[in-house]
Amino acid sequence: MIRYIKSSGKWLVGQKDWSAHFAFAIGGIGVGLVATFMAISSEWANHVFHKMVAISPWLPFIISPLGLMLVVWLTRKWFPGSEGSGIPQVMVTLEDGHEKERDQFLSLRIAFGKVFLCVLGLFSGASIGREGPTVHVGAALMYSMRRFVQFRMFDVNKVLILTGGAAGVSAAFNTPLAGIVFGIEELSRSFEVRSRALLLTGVMVASIVAISIQGNYTYFGVSSAVIDLQQSIIPVLVCGVAGGVLGGIFSLMLIRGSQWVAPYRNNNPFVVAALCGLSIAIIGYYSGNLTYGAGYEEAKSLLTGSGELDNDYGYLKLLATVVSYLSGIPGGIFAPSLSTGAGVGSHLAQWLVDYPEGVIMLLAMVGYFSGVVQAPITAFVIVLEMTDQNKLVMPMMVTAFIATGISKSICTTPIYCTLADNFRRDDKKRYLKS
Questions:
Q1: Is residue 402 part of a domain?
Q2: pLDDT band, residue 6 (cuts 50/70/90)
Q3: Domain-ending residue, one of 160, 184, 214
């Protein structure tokens, strides 16, 4: 029997009522399974594309423009609302809270399209990640569980969306703590403490499912890099400032670029997609075919010391990610940003020769990612969990906050908040036509 407790004019679920936790757990299982499928299929798409590049480095000049044109056509024809990383859409549904918007942007059709189109974008060589789209898909899957939550509660739909997005980050990166922090710091800055138990249920179940299938892995492998706290002052300052400047520039390029290209994308979407695809191929060719895809393998090779990249890799990866996003295809910026940060760190290490190279790359990853998302706690927790490097907690934390402060002086509004506002203002009418 369901029991309610009335507190401060709102109805809360009694402690003996486990139906809510059961519904969130089932949703978490779904998010974990889909995140695993996206991980496997994304790796497959990236592998196939690189096999084609190995046949001829000129193939991307055909595959990338045509592939992005196909993705844009499918997005506009069958899956409107699925473009970009998906995090701005989730933020819109959390902030506005209208049922029509939530049903539109968080439908199972959109979730399916997000998965399919993201994989197709990677198959075309775009510099995109699957982690942001997993947030969108996770929110959509968890939101679909609302029909099974049959009791009055404090905006249970909002908690479902928030939990789904957090579970998506957790399952995509195998970082449960980062998923929770992301939900609190980025998706809902007005997070209500009363929802923490349900949030934990969804996030932890999604993580368990993903880990049980993929194994308890570290996303970028284990780094053995260490440094004394006293010796880390200069690397922290350099990586914090460099990451903040580059992250702020990237965010500004993405925001201003999205605003500038929007009219052209609305009037000539296939021309824009083809030009972006051609640009991706040019950047990829100049980088030695390294900037295609999410950048997971490149970052892992740097952090584990199993490979070396040219000093310009990080900056070319930044450009490739901007161009990929401006094309309007579904795809995230999480993994490409982390890969960019690793590349920038590899370059900085050539100047900071008195410090461990691995430490510089880790701090640069944290600094750049913090500069991009302006969510310092999420940034350093994600990198911390992905690399299993607990000895660098304090340097990572300080780097993250320095980079965030520098980035805010360049790009005054966090990127996802701005993109959500742009999405709401420019695209909502088109997507919500009856």
A1: yes
A2: very low
A3: 214
Side-chain-side CA neighbours of 346 within 13 Å: the count stands at 24
Place of tokens 């030009």: 275
**CB-based contacts of 357, cutoff 8 Å, min separation 6:** 225, 346, 349
Structure tokens at 394: 């304090």
Q: How many helices (H) and strands (E) does the chain have?
A: 19, 2
Which of 24, 13, 20 is closest to 164 using CA atoms?
24
Q: Using CB atoms within 10 A of its CB, is residue 409 exposed (0-12), middle (13-18) or buried (19+)? A: exposed
Please tell me the least confidently modeled range out of 36-40, 170-174, 187-191, 229-233. 187-191
Q: CA of 17: how far to CAs of 14, 151, 363, in Å?
A: 6, 10, 45
pTM: 0.86
Q: pLDDT, tens digit, for every residue of 345-372?
A: 999 999 998 888 888 999 999 999 999 9
* In a domain? residue 347: yes
Regarding whether 37 and 133 lie in a shared domain, the answer is: yes
417 and 279 share a domain? yes
Residues 6+ apart with CB under 8 A from 10: 154
The answer as to whether 266 is a domain residue is yes
Structure tokens, 104: 């539109």
1 Cβ neighbours under 8 A, 6+ residues apart: none
Q: What percent of the chain has pLDDT over 90?
A: 51
User: Cα–Cα distances in Å, from 250 out to 228, 258, 314, 372, 398?
Assistant: 31, 12, 12, 7, 21
| Helix (H/G/I), strand (E/B), else coil: 7 | strand
Higher model confidence: residue 187 or residue 31? 31
Q: What residue numbers bound the domain in which 162 lies?
A: 16-214
pLDDT average, residue stretch 43-55: 95
Which residue's entry shows tokens 């008195």? 354
The SS3 assignment for 55 reads helix
Total domains, the chain: 2
Cβ distance 399 to 202 under 8 Å? no
Q: Note the pLDDT tens digit of each residue in 260-309.
A: 998 999 899 999 999 999 999 999 999 999 999 999 889 988 888 877 88
Same domain as 131, residue 239: no
Domain boundary pick from 214, 247, 282: 214
Q: Is there a single domain that holds both residue 311 and residue 410? A: yes
CA distances from 114 to 129, 338, 354 (A): 12, 21, 45
